[in-house]
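ESCALATION

Customer reports they have been waiting on this structure for their group meeting. Please prioritize. Original submission:
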Amino acid sequence: MSIYGLLIESRVDIVRRKFPNLSDDEVNQIIDTDPTETKKYILWIAREYDRMSEMSFDKVKNLLINWEQQINRLDYDMLADYNIHHGFDVGTNPNPSNYKDIYTYTLQDVAKLVPYLQKLPTKNELKTIARSETTKIYEGPLDGYNVLIVKPLSYRASCHYGATTKWCTASKKTTLNFDSYTKRGDLYYIIFKDENYKHFEFLALKY
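Update from on-call: job pushed to the front of the queue and completed.
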């Protein structure tokens, strides 16, 4: 038997031991529902089937196919943003080490997340969008440093260029601080490219 075959056999055995009330037909249906080569989701499917008592296996299979295609679009800050803006908590205590693990979520959670992820731009698309919403002031040597100076014109651009900082204007939790600053003046971000350091400048409007 191949390594894949042994792995699948082991996973099926775990399902049978954890859910002894499942019939052979139900176990086979769960195995068929998992679209992955190694049947890595069968324990999750069995858990949700046991929890819900009934399930549309075809819909779950399609959902898992989309989960496989979209999950790499999700990052932890994005998940927090989703929960805040949609007024509910998706997942059971998701954290930076498990937020991409499907076992953190119920079937209902996954059904909510997948359509959301499908609408999101990819990371490369986000970079392109952020750059289009930014005025580049200067890029090159300055006092012995290799710097990039930008003026973010949108909250999305502010989050992109302010990533890894604790600046309130780049917080993914709220746009309020960015909106407040930009109503009163201009934001400039100075990025020291070789030093992994960023500096924040704010020029207030003068009347």
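Sent to customer with the following note: Residues 3-18 form the longest helix (16 residues).
Escalation resolved.
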